[in-house]
Specification:
Blueprint: E1 3-7, E2 13-18, H1 30-44, H2 103-119, E3 123-126, H3 136-145, E4 152-156, H4 161-167, E5 173-177, H5 183-188, E6 191-195, H6 196-207
Helix pairs in contact: 1-2, 3-4
Amino acid sequence: MSTLPIHNQEGKEIDQLQLDVKVFDGKVKSGLLYQAVTGFNANQRLGLAATKTRGEVSGGGRKPWKQKGTGRARVGSIRSPLWRHGGVIFGPHPRDYSYNLSQRTRLEALKSSLNAKLQDNGIFVVEDIKLENAKTKGLAKILSGLKAPDNTLLLLDVVDKNIKLAANNISGLVMELARNVNAYQILRAHKIIINKKGFMQLAERLKGK
């Protein structure tokens, strides 16, 4: 695929966009996509799960009974992990799951994700999207004309205040700046609607990797 049709916000084709073959070469590197998605999910984990060891549970400072002579098993604390209300052995503690991928890896994964979407006809380019006011009804009408499914990623070159406010009330719609999008967002969306300037920004970002 060497060109993409450009539509107006009513969905009518008005022009053609020439694709840079150095960026949109049709290659999909599944290994890089796996790294990008796994890394993104790992970076979203809070790692706040926590349990208390026997030394952290309150109480249990005094030995319940003497070591010998009672006929019972020896025990040093009522907060032993073997006892109810005792500590936890090898339980989870707060930790950082995040890790960094190199910029080159992230951009190569982004490039692969875009090529995958192009192969599935999942990218829809519009000349521009404009709203006169921040009415959800107006944006919903535009998306309906563009046949946008529930899980749609809207990419723009700049933040449009009216579109941003209107998009907040549309379930399943995610709006992002084209220059900030990542491979996970591209792969997760069923359809990507991007304005022409945003598409050019994205292509330039990948060309300069």
